Amino acid sequence: MRAGLLQTFFPVDLPYTLGWDVAGTVAEIGTGADGFAVGDRVIGRLDGGGAAAEYVRASVAVLVAVPDSVPLANAAALPVAGLTAWQAVFEHGNTAAGKRVLINGAGGGVGGFATQLAKYAGAEVIATASARSAETVLRQGADRVIDYTTGPVGAALDGPVDTLLNLVPLSPPDAAALVPLVRPGGRIVSIATPVEPPADAGVTAMHMVARNDVAQLAALVELVDAGAVTIDISQSRPLADLADIHRSSDAGRTRGKVVIIP
Length: 262
Ligand SMILES: NC(=O)c1ccc[n+]([C@@H]2O[C@H](COP(=O)([O-])OP(=O)(O)OC[C@H]3O[C@@H](n4cnc5c(N)ncnc54)[C@H](OP(=O)(O)O)[C@@H]3O)[C@@H](O)[C@H]2O)c1
Hints:
This protein has 262 residues and is of the alpha/beta class.
């Protein structure tokens, strides 16, 4: 968004405050808004942006209460990545007990949640990650990690999977190389580069854009509160560091979720 690459999908008026994920306590309530009280701890996905700030204005329709047992700074990492993972794993990936799932890009923010949710669903989870994320991904429940930096993922995979979740931007040849990793009748869900299998592969593929869903966000908060899902915070930084965090992310130097504390 900062580079203007998403103007067609998310046109914005300048000046614009970045950030969709927010966590905080309710400071004031607008006329006619109900469901929350001043002091309530909440999180939400702000589709209009504005989250990278000390105060934000949000519709009550996008907010979810967070119990005292869940640290707000951790919960801030849930909305965008958690909802995207939820929809990829459950709605589009049809992940269930007994399924074999390959998560390509498990070391990222979405990947950490996707790994845990697929495992929670009872699937066998094979995850791609580099050495810096492998331990975290195994702790999150992956049955096996394939290091994508040491060779083609397919060469290390012992048989095809039912579902492949692609969570990373890829070159067209790298995207095409994922298709044979899925059994005929299986499916590919990509949140980044679309993967387009040839018709004779017998593989269903879809590209998804996650939507806001407070019921799913509330379910994620419950899973975190119950200890079934943990939040992989790799850095906690002040708001003044935002530009530096963006540069690090652009350069591929960040992993997991980065939380900003105003
Ligand atoms: N469609 C949607 O609705 C939607 C929603 C959210 C995000 N997205 C997009 O989805 C992608 C993932 O989002 P994110 O927030 O999870 O990103 P992220 O946290 O920035 O992901 C970074 C991680 O990607 C991993 N990675 C990089 N190249 C890889 C490769 N070739 N193979 C496997 N893993 C690789 C790295 O893992 P290691 O640490 O293991 O090296 C790194 O930690 C982004 O492109 C984002 O724009 C789409």
